Amino acid sequence: MQFSKAQSNPLRTPKVIALTNKNEMKIILTSLGASWVSCILPLSTGKRDVILGAPNMATQMEQGVYLGATVGRVANRIANAKFTLGDKVYSVSNNQGEHCLHGGKDNFSYRVWAISQPNPQQAVFTLVSSDGDQGFPGELTVEVHYELTDDNQVIIDYKHQVNQLCPVNLTNHTYFNLAGEESARTALEHDLQIHGTHFLPTSKEGIPTGEWRDVTDTHFDFRQSKRIGRDFLQDEEQLQAGGYDHTLIFDKSVIDGQTSAASLLSPEGDVRMNITTTMPSMQLYTGNYLVAVPGKTKVYTPFSGVAFETQFPPDAINHPEWGAQYSGISQPNEIYTSQTRYQFVF
Question: Active-site residue among 173, 190, 198, 246?
Fold first, then answer.
C-alpha cells in the first residue's frame, strides 16, 4: 500500500475545495488542518449547513477550538506531556497547562496539508511530521481521505506510518448542529444514542483517572436514545467539565465500521446522522468551551455544537493496563488504517 502523491504547497496558503454528490449535498474542506468546514444538506425546506465553521480562512487560522480539524499526532490529552516507550521518557509539547492536548502547541490542525482531488467526490490530504515534531519520536506520514458518497455518507479514512515506535491517535474534531449552524437550537436539544458500555472519569483538567466506569445507572448511559440535555450537568463528572467532555468505550460489537456506533437526531427530527467507526472509543464533547467563537453566520457560544471524536482513549500511552487494543502505539514501518463514516438521513 502506497501513500498518495498529493500536491504540496510551498507557499503554505490554505486551499479550499468542495465535494458534491448527485443529490446536491455538498461538503467544503480546507488544507488548513485537513479540516471539514461545511456540510450542506439539500433539505426540502432549503439548504442547511449542519457543522460549525469559521467565517473565512484568516479566522480559521486563528481559532483555537479545532473547528472541523484533523488533530494529532495524539488526539486528546497526555498527562503531564510525558510518556515512556521502551526505556526512554519522552517530553512533548504542553498546551493545556502542564498537559499535552491534541498533539501540542503546533499540532496538525494548524498545518497546511498537501492536497489532491482524484475526482469531484474525493479529496486526499497528506502530511509528513518530522522526527522530534512536538517532542514525538520518529518521522510520521499521514494521509486523510474524505469521500462524499451518493447515499449521503461522509467517509473519512486515515492512514499512517511511522519509522520509530510512537503513539499515534488521529481524529476529526467537527462540531455538529443538525438544526443548522445558524440555528438558535443547541446541541442539548438533540437526541443522541451511543453504544458505549463504559466512560472514563477524569480529573478537573480532563485527565483520565484510569477507571473505566460502567455507564449503567449513570448520566453517561446513551445506549437508549435520549435528549442530550436531559441529564446534563447532573453529576460531579459533568460539573467539573462544564458538560460532557468524556470518553465512552464502545461495545466491541459496534466497531466493525459497518454497525452504527452512535446516532444523532436533530431537534425537529428532520435530520439524522449515524456514525460508524473502526475506532474503540469516542470523546463526546458538547462544546462547553465555545466562548465567543466567530462563526459563519453567528458567534458560537457553549453548546452551539457537539463533537464526536472517534479515537483511542486519552492518555492511553500512560495506561498500559488498558491493553494493546486501546494503546494507540504504532510499530515502525507498518501502515495503520482506520475509518469513520457519517451517514446523513434527511
Answer: 173
Domain ranges in the chain are 16-189+278-345
Q: Cell for 200? A: 472514563
Task: Say which CATH topology domain 16-189+278-345 has.
Answer: Beta-galactosidase; Chain A, domain 5 (2.70.98)
Q: Which helix (H) or strand (E) is 241 found in, with range?
A: helix 236-241
Q: Please pick, among 181, 246, 309, 319, the residue that the annotation labels catalytic.
A: 309
Q: Is 174 annotated as a binding residue?
A: yes
Active-site annotation holds for 24: no
Q: 44 falls in which pLDDT band (50, 70, 90)?
A: very high
Q: What is the pLDDT of residues 113-153, one digit of tens each?
A: 999 999 999 999 999 999 999 999 999 999 999 999 999 99
| High-pLDDT (> 70) share of the chain, % | 97
The answer on whether 175 is annotated among ligand-binding residues is yes
**Does the annotation mark 309 as catalytic?**
yes
In 163-290, DSSP assigns E strands to 166-167, 171-172, 175-176, 191-194, 196-199, 213-214, 226-227, 245-250, 262-265, 272-277, 281-285
Does residue 11 have a pLDDT over 80?
A: no
**285 touches 174 (CB < 8 A):** no
Q: Residue 229: left if φ>0, alpha if ψ -120 to 50, beta else—which one?
A: alpha
The answer on whether 173 is annotated among ligand-binding residues is: yes
